[in-house]
């Protein structure tokens, strides 16, 4: 326990003479049989690990925090603005009154042991998971103004240097009023989706197909782990990062940010989904899971841009040498059919 003791000794709880058992056991339970077995469980994991560390993490019940002589849930405490960072404040009541996907928050949902040199803290990565998972950018609980104040300084460099008043200043406030999307300048601020790490289940549970199936039941997983405080969020979810990145390259590399999906028709032809008056007709290539790069392998420069082009050589590589001419045959027949259709349409009424 030396590592944890050293962390506690520099913590504010140590300065208030709040000992380990004051937090890790709910008030009035320290001498109960359940508490004794809990302590023995930690001792056995310590001995089983060869006396190096305690593998069984000690939890902190909500009652330990909200006891009358610690952090009582009165109006003063719940509504007090606490400085979380230099620019962001935190109010407990706002969070206790909310439920994230049906689950109430606990004290140790936010207050966790993450850093090796700190015994108890609120890591920003926990805020990110609740505020950004399953949300649209700058909507609902992911709205920027929930944490950030809207800057009022002009964004134009020349206005900051004292230019004349003939030019209207552009500020974050004016952009918000004009409904200019934040992504216009702040691109790729939120990275990750907080997906479930299913392999993490088997760090605590024995592997089984039944366990994998249970992991799909969100309500069950939250009831078993969140409501009972038996696991922390990041033991199951991948983290979500919220920070500024390279705004130009992130947008430049995301084709779909500006350009329509030019290959949607090709995808539809391969999938062959049922349409109005047309039965389901998947391509033979689709049934064997051949992707675009299976055929488009030859690199060419077209209009100054490198593109991967499909050729008959790709056909022959999988099939037979005589299939090399198949691609050209398809192309010629398709062109002939399209031109014939256009001629028919031109002569119509």
Would you spell out the secondary-structure blueprint of this structure?
Elements: H1 2-9, H2 12-15, H3 20-24, H4 33-48, H5 62-66, H6 75-79, E1 82-83, E2 89-90, H7 92-96, E3 99-100, E4 103-104, H8 107-110, H9 124-132, H10 157-160, H11 172-177, E5 190-191, H12 209-214, H13 218-227, E6 241-242, H14 247-252, H15 264-271, H16 284-287, E7 296-302, E8 305-310, H17 312-318, H18 326-346
Antiparallel strand pairs: 1-2, 3-4, 5-6, 7-8
Tally the beta strands: 8
Shape: extended
Average pLDDT value? 81
Span between termini = 89 Å
Structure class: mainly alpha
User: How many helix segments?
Assistant: 18
Could you name the ranges where pLDDT drops below 50 across 5 or more consecutive residues?
A: none
Run of helices and strands = HHHHHHEEHEEHHHHEHHEHHHEEHH
Helix percent reads 25-40%
Strand content: 5-15%
Side-by-side strand order of the widest sheet = 1-2
Radius of gyration: 30 Å
Largest sheet: 2 strands, antiparallel
